[in-house]
Design a protein that fits this description.
Organism: Sphaerisporangium aureirubrum
Protein name: Histidine phosphatase family protein
Largest sheet: 6 strands, mixed
CATH class: Alpha Beta
Number of domains: 1
InterPro entries: His_Pase_superF_clade-1, His_PPase_superfam, PGM_Phosphatase
Strand content: 15-25%
Order of helices and strands: EEHEHEEHHEHEE
Shape: globular
């Protein structure tokens, strides 16, 4: 029989970010109080599943999202650099200022690459590598990879054979959401999506473009 394996891509929970910055890969950004509650809700939702591997981006917000689930499952969180947030030249810039500052315009010449950050093709390559490795490790069981909105959405777009250029406001990848990839053997057969902490998600603000990464 062909082994069925599920790889869950868990986006980190809400971050304490009172300045409203695009923090990207910058260190020192931790979960907010609401974010910690979100992580607990995800752990409760997934604790009964047959999860045998748990890996996370090295950034603090991802590690902190993974921690309650690790405790619930009795697993150790392993760090995988391939799950890190996408590189972006606007790290440290207020989201509202990105599109109102003329000197930033030169970075928007190619949204299909995108010209302001890590190429989509590179994101796909590293995320696919992380997924393939954990799928082989957890064959016949389930695994969780804790990552960030853009890497998760980009690999999903690629898996569904959709164009990679997109409007960030249309991403289906809310805070603490779970995108589930089901494989039969080595073949991807379905993609599911759920929001275990959806009740705690705040409506986006007027300057939001998707989320704060």
């Amino acid at each position: 029989m062909t082994a069925s394996t599920v790889v869950h891509l868990l986006r980190h929970a809400e971050v304490h970010n009172p300045e409203g910055l695009l923090y990207g890969r910058l260190p020192g950004y931790h979960l907010s109080e609401t974010g910690r509650s979100m992580a607990d809700m995800v752990a409760k939702a997934l604790s009964g599943r047959d999860i045998t591997a748990l890996l996370s981006s090295p950034l603090e917000r991802a590690q902190e999202t993974a921690a309650p689930l690790a405790d619930a499952l009795g697993l150790t969180v392993r760090t995988d650099e391939r799950l890190i947030e996408a590189a972006n030249i606007f790290e440290g810039v207020a989201l509202g200022a990105m599109f109102r500052t003329p000197r930033h315009y030169r970075h928007f010449w190619n949204p299909g690459r995108p010209s302001w950050g890590e190429p989509y093709a590179d994101i796909i390559r590293r995320m696919r590598g992380a997924i393939d490795d954990v799928r082989a490790e957890a064959r016949g069981h389930e695994a969780v990879l804790v990552s960030h909105q853009l890497p998760i959405w980009t690999i999903r777009q690629a898996a569904e054979r959709r164009r990679l250029w997109h409007d960030p406001r249309r991403r289906q990848c809310a805070l603490a959401s779970v995108t589930s990839l089901t494989f039969e053997g080595d073949r991807l057969t379905s993609i599911g999506y759920s929001e275990p902490a959806g009740a705690l998600i705040k409506p986006p603000g007027p300057n939001s473009r998707g989320s704060r990464r």
